[in-house]
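USER: My hope is that you can spare some time for a protein that puzzles me. I am handing you a single protein, as its sequence and its fold in token form. Walk me, if you will, through where the backbone shape changes along the chain. The protein I mean follows directly.
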Amino acid sequence: MIIVTGGAGFIGSCLVAALCDRGLDVVVVDWLGDQDKWRNLRHRPAVRIVSPDDLDGFLGSAADVGAVFHMGAISSTTATDGDLVWATNVALSEKLRDWCAEQRVRFIYASSAATYGAADRADLFSDDPARLGTLEPLNLYGWSKHMFDQLTEARLTRGGVRPPQWTGLKFFNVYGPNEYHKGSMISVVKVKYDEVRAGRPARLFRSDRPDVADGEQVRDFIWVGDVVKVMLWLYDHPDVNGLFNCGTGVARSYLDLARAVCAAAGVPERIEFIDMPESLRGQYQSFTRADMSRLRAVGYREPFLSLEDGVGLYVRDYLGKSDPYL
């Protein structure tokens, strides 16, 4: 049995699909809510769903669990309820990690590039554990992920009881199918596609930094299928432990992204700039690029899709179809 928390969400449901395609017994722990998350699972009829409210009882009776993929979290970068974020992103994560340690179950969890905060140079995006204590996240979400990373690193490298495999992945800017329920946290690729298909220009934020031109803010955009490949590789390599970046290692501008969306959608290139919302100023990452050297060093060899190829795949095989779900 494989348990996937957050398995009805964006990345979680894409992982569930891949695990089901392998013929594995998958249990999803998630709330379906009222934002059509159920659609992310409707092509996987054999999946069992457990409410997070029932998780303790389920774990108490679960047998033959091979691994827990912990994808569930409050992932909004504008979240403000510190107690709720701590309970969900840290306390629950610690409970699952410790259960995995006690039951000898492998534990693979989602961290985030938001832990890097205002880092603005390539050398500052190192996932070297020796640099973990130097990071300064900009928002509550990033801080909560950083806290769990630190607590886990401390517990598992200083003689604490550990799962037989423990791996964290710092996801960078992921885009792809099954993200449609995410509201304001949906990928920029989907937002720009909706704009240009409606006949409007692709709108980008003006820069809030004098040293960065409008549209030249850069991020490490990664196709969700590549993220899933990394997680499956970790599942297939139970000897790999630690906290790793999960991006492409390439930084691309928002202008590049808008142009790729226009090209994939087959519409003329029209791009406009709008003021950045006040709530994001001073908390907006103008540069991210994953240092992928540590994951490569432990043996991961698969290439990552380019931004143009990933956007083209997303538009052609999903957004342009009547059923855009994986």
Remarks:
- Residues 82-103 form the longest helix (22 residues).
- DSSP finds nine helices and 13 strands in the chain.
- The CA atoms of residues 59 and 99 lie 8 Å apart.
- The mean pLDDT is 94.
